[in-house]
Design a protein that fits this description.
mainly beta; eight-stranded mixed β-sheet
């Protein structure tokens, strides 16, 4: 029986080619999303496959045939039965039209025979009502990341070799694309998003395939994280310096901000020298939203902000530091009114003390206005707030200066760029106590 069946199929096929070789026509799909050709292992002629994107249980497949045969035509539509391996009639019509259509077709193979007084034509095609259902969801959500997941189910597609009846599967492998706005964040069914946004954000999943079926779903990530950010104004100035801190943090709790004001950088260095134990470098803490703080003393100061966001399962924090130090300058010059260069090791030099200066010039004059000594430093370096220099050792030209009253002028430029000066009298004594 198998040999006879194949024999008659081959005879019918050869007769069809001989009988219809001089006529033309076409079978097509009505509203299909994609098409490809069969790949029969045994059958000698491949057929078109038409795909229709639809929902589960909904048949929208439709075929139409065009014929150039003249006169009245008998359109005989048949559907392939995989159980018997033959095409079975399910619809026929007689018409003078050159077109015949069938709609709401179930999955399977279809054949239409067209017979008229002028000839005969036979066409075949496969149709599939392809459906896919899927769901997008937010999975695990922590302070560091959250996950996006999708689950899906789709129709299975099989056509059959018309010679052997063997099923042939078609793999409709879907592709995935997660987007945040127009930005693609992943091309996998599941994705991990690190550094979560601080705002509730919508993500869109698009599932597509090579046959043209496309579906989308959206899901909202509800943010549980915060981002700390602030600015300070002014960033430098003379002490006492009052600085306003502007809190620009995102998605923090109303009462979830903690400010840390560090000690002066030089003080931290001094405290840490030679020690093996960690030191307390924090000078002051504040819990205001946007504090105002006054730095009383000169120095280099760092500030950090910790922002907190509390949710049902997590307390997320974020920390940010100022990009640069707050520089508090106090341009100050102090000079004694007496010194005793008598070699006893006490008060032997005229010592001038200054703060936050980058250039300094100290000139000494006798009572007749003659310059007897000059000290100058145009590159005062270091973080120290206070510098002391031995501006004069009481010598003029290598000889002891006479006891008496001398006049000094101190000129300088502070680290704030402003000019500073001080003038006065100093008494030089030679006698020993």
């Amino acid at each position: 029986m198998i040999v006879n069946k194949r024999y008659w199929i081959l005879i019918a096929f050869i007769a069809f080619l001989l009988f219809s070789g001089s006529v033309s026509g076409q079978i097509s799909a009505l509203g299909s999303s994609g098409t490809e050709m069969t790949n029969y292992p045994s059958f000698p002629q491949n057929d078109p496959i038409f795909f229709f994107c639809t929902a589960p249980g909904k048949n929208i497949a439709a075929l139409s045939v065009m014929s150039n045969l003249e006169g009245e035509k008998n359109f005989n539509w048949e559907r392939f039965n995989p159980a018997t391996g033959i095409f079975e009639v399910f619809f026929s019509e007689i018409s003078n039209s050159n077109q015949s259509s069938v709609i709401n077709l179930e999955d399977g193979g279809y054949r239409v025979s067209i017979v008229s007084e002028t000839g005969q034509q036979v066409f075949r095609a496969w149709v599939f009502n392809f459906w896919r259902t899927f769901e997008a969801m937010v999975g695990e959500s922590t302070c560091d990341f959250f996950s996006l997941h999708s689950t899906f189910e789709q129709a299975q597609i099989n056509y059959y070799d018309l010679s052997t009846g063997a099923p042939i599967g078609i793999n409709i492998a879907p592709t995935f694309e997660w987007r945040e706005g127009e930005k693609i964040v992943s091309r996998f069914a599941s994705a991990f998003i690190y550094e979560p946004p601080t705002k509730d954000t919508e993500y869109r999943l698009t599932v597509s395939d090579r046959i043209g079926c496309i579906a989308t779903a959206t899901i909202t990530y509800f943010s549980i994280v915060t981002k700390a950010s602030f600015s300070a104004n002014p960033m430098e100035g003379e002490a006492p310096l009052t600085v306003t801190f502007s809190n620009n943090s995102e998605n923090g709790d109303t009462n979830g901000y903690e400010w840390f004001f560090f000690k002066d950088l030089d003080e931290i260095k001094r405290l840490s020298q030679g020690g093996s134990q960690p030191i307390d470098s924090i000078k002051f803490k504040a819990f205001d939203f946007s504090p105002v703080y006054t730095f009383e003393n000169s120095g280099y100061y760092m500030v950090k902000l910790v922002s907190k966001k509390t949710s049902q399962f997590w307390t997320c924090t974020d920390t940010v530091y100022l990009e640069n130090y707050i520089v508090v300058d106090t341009s100050y010059i102090a000079a004694p009114n007496v010194f005793t260069p008598n070699g006893d090791g006490t008060n032997d030099n005229f010592v001038v003390k200054f703060w936050s200066m980058k250039e300094v010039k100290i000139s000494i004059f006798n009572r007749w206005g003659r310059t007897v000594h000059v000290y100058e430093n145009k590159n005062v370096l270091g973080f120290e707030n206070t510098w002391s220099v031995s501006a004069w050792d009481g010598l003029i030209g290598g000889r002891d200066a006479s006891p008496g009253v001398y006049y000094y002028v101190v000129e300088g430029i502070g680290r704030d760029g402003k000019k500073r000066w001080k003038r006065g009298f100093v008494h030089l004594f030679r006698g020993k106590d």
